Amino acid sequence: MDVTGHTSGKPSSGPEPRKAASIRDVAQAAGVSYQTVSRVINGHPNVREETRKRVEEAIGALGFRRNATAFALAIGVTRSVTVLTSDTTLYGYAATLQGLEEAARAAGYSLGVKVLTAEDDLDRTVSSAAAGGGGLMVIGFDRLAASALSRVPADVPCAAVVEAPSHGQAPPRPAVWADDREAARAATAHLLQLGHRTVHYVAIPTSAGTRRSEGPRTQGWRSALESAGITPPEPQGGKGWDAQAGYDEGLRLADDPDVTAILCGNDDLALGVLRALHHAGRSVPGDVSVIGFDDAPHSGFLTPSLTTVRMDFQGLGRDAFNLLRSQLEDGFEPPAPTFVGTDLVIRESSAPRHT
Q: What is the largest CA-CA distance in the chain?
């Protein structure tokens, strides 16, 4: 993050601060090209020992410190990535961004973030983000970001983190995803195994192209019910991601005494549902069992603590960056994925149905 500002008052009469040495300063002091300095810094074997020693002495004398971005520009390679995302605050987005940033920093890349809004001209926004060189990364969990992903020109290096695609379909660019369809199926099956006759669902918005489309978590919930011979009730929500959206849907569900189990599309929705049930006088898990999704940091500290699906968003971010890096660097082969899948974390908010 770049921060600029100003101070008031008279300028200092002290000495001018020393300008940081650049790679070209080192090259001049050592009497070599900046490409040779690059090879020394990167441990390249094809450098004579005498030359290496001279460069290292110049580095020490000048106090040179390698800046990844400036260094990349000096050698003619743009080691930068711009992330397109519609949100940086919701847990899934923020944790994915964290994984991306960690992987980028470790590889010597700078990372910029462009937050998409519904008012954006997406074609112009994508073109502007791509104009700086480097590569584009899209966190495509929602309809807006998925639309931006589809607009990235074919010649621009790009990778994405997306919702699990429908069977037989593939994202428009290299991408990683979690099998949240199977995770939702397993969570729903767990509630049925606890004796609940059906499971109601409070959905998150989907990245699919139409408002009537169902996301993978909804599909997994529906699949579990249908496999058990149960006609799924109408899914609720699908309009928001936050606790307020969950609270509004929770109040509607709380009015129905036949509702004894609720799966929520994320933990923020579950937080709102828990509050709504409390206000309606329905106990959790005594009257209603609730399961969330994502295992956000607060979920284990709610009262009752929230049963939820754990997602490794940081792992997704790291793996997605490696997919992009393989497009930006000749000869770079992405390592085996580090993403470890999903787990159902059993806590206090789910229990057998009371008869």
A: 85
Span 178-220, pLDDT tens digits? 999 999 999 999 999 999 999 999 998 877 655 556 889 999 9
DSSP string covering 10-57, please?
PPP-SPPPPPPP-HHHHHHHHTS-HHHHHHHHTT-S-S-HHHHHHHHH
Token pair recorded at residue 322: 């490696």
Query: In this predicted model, what pLDDT tens digit does every residue of 230-269 receive, in sequence order?
Result: 999 999 888 888 999 999 999 999 999 999 999 999 999 9
What is the rounded distance in angstroms from the CA atom of residue 42 to the CA atom of residue 53? 14
Please report, for residues 30, 46, 59, 72, 80, the alpha-carbon distance to residue 52 in angstroms, rounded to integers and kept in the order given. Answer: 9, 10, 11, 20, 28
DSSP, residue by residue, 182-251 = HHHHHHHHHHHHTT-S--EEEEPP--SSSTTPPPHHHHHHHHHHHHTT-PPPPPEE-S--SHHHHHHHHH
Question: For 86-109, what is each residue's pLDDT tens digit?
Answer: 999 999 999 999 999 999 999 889
For residue 146, give the H/E element and its range: helix 143-150
Neighbours of 17 (CB within 10 A): 7
Cα distance from N-terminal residue to C-terminal residue, the chain: 56
One-letter amino acid for residue 74 of the chain: A
The Cα 293–Cα 91 span in angstroms is 11
Among residues 97, 77, 81, the alpha carbon closest in space to that of 89 is found at: 97
- For residues 348 and 244, give the distance between their C-alpha atoms in angstroms, rounded to a whole number: 22
